[in-house]
Structures
1.
Amino acid sequence: MRSFCGFIAIGVLLPFLVMCKPSTTKQTLAPVFTKTTPADPMVQFYASGQTEIRAKSNFYYALFKRDYDLKFDATKNTGEAATERMPYVGSWYPQNRGGTNVRMRGNSPLEKYDAVFNKSSTAKAADWERKNHTVGASDDSAAWAGHCNGFSAASSRHQEPSKQVVRGDVTFYPEDIKALLAEVYMGAKFYFLGGNRCGLVNDAPLTPPGSRQDPLTMGACDDVNPGTFHVAVTNWIGIQKYPLIMDESSKEQVWNYPHWKYSFDSRTVSRADANRIITGSSTDEYKFNPNAKQFRSVAMTIYHTNAFVEERMTNTVATEQRYKAKAYYYILELNDAGDIIGGEWVSTSQRDHPDFIWVALEPMPGDGTPYSANPNLDAKEILKLWAESIGADPNNPPTGLMEPKLATEWGRFPKFDVQINGANTGAAFAVDDAIEILLKRKEGLSGATVEAVLDGNRVPFDQSIAPRASLSKVSDGLHVLEIKWKSGPITVDEQRVRFHVIR
């Protein structure tokens, strides 16, 4: 059985073989996957969801130069992706049918690719697909192994191909180009916006919030916290008008779809009502988040673009079949300021909620494993085919969101590095009461002195070769460190670093 492996803050989408049609195979109740703990700042999934929300806000800032809007009253109750970002309909290329090595109009897309780009090579994309992205009917994953993550990533990042493209004596039809895009995006860079994969088989029961051993910590299969879910949807789709990808299955099977539209209704509820809605108990005690001061009961409907067993062009699919809607129900927890700080799933959503939410970045070369993209494809050549198919310059294809360097190397600058508690890559977080800030000169700063301000207050750095400052009792939340290097009265370099403190 194939599984999903852990991820870092930004990484390659690895074992993520997914489906877009429920399995009808009877399965046992025994869990078949070991839960994987993400190797990023979320050391565990807190019921309050604040660790998740802050981590994702850092990534959001790296892309859009603004923080997540956490005010519930400011969130838009409707939103949809911009027209040019509307995900197209396609296929999830099931592996029990040969994956993307399926013949639609003449030879398969991979056979056509080999004939043009691998003509003189012994490495063939079609052969690799047959060996690595194909399963038999008796395979445990036969009903759901496929390219749904590749389809979702490509569909959320690219306009649908519309014209045939000729290379030599080979014609690539739009359907062929869509299949090639789905294949190369099996190896897309990605960023998780919340959640975690649940490894329980479909018949295994989920633990309701009221039965958790530790009410403050979400269970392994509570998946994305509703607070994180709400903030991600309303900021990405509502504000940025950018689609998100979600695994709609709350258990072992993975069913990714590109989501592009939502609407929600809400009402204010009391602490006792929130507890009753979550647990069925009439007690006033709310044990899931001691910082929650206000509560909202939310019903959100979110829409995704559909995917089929066989490739289809969007304009050939009836409108009612192109898009599907699903409703989710949850309680949001707010602090005194009205910020969303977490939440709990309620009603049917305690059993049926998204596993995880993610956004696709640029494709990467396949690494040769069955869990990645076909290594005998060159994404650059496929993006040229796609660009020509939509009437764009094939030598300068349009790009979607790219991996932001700020999110991975926030403390590295041309003339010096910043380390906070020994780190300057990943996500800018500090989790200790005491924070040590170290500055490492690189070039052009010999003899310069440093001046630094944290949230408007001067930071006393020593003036050694590697200036250092120690701070204690820094408050929770976002902080901005402004650093200036001066040679006499002249500023020779200045930079800003954002970081969060979490306890």
2.
Amino acid sequence: MWVDLGEIMVAKAKCSVCGNKIDISGIPPRLEGVKIYCRICGATSLHKF
């Protein structure tokens, strides 16, 4: 049985508050974007592809 996962992202996003680079590899892209939580400052941002 084969499972098609589509394209898997290999990228880094930048936190809009503190500028920390966050690894978002392995997250499938979504039309509305991906919510990213920063472990350094605690901010949640929306990253669009």
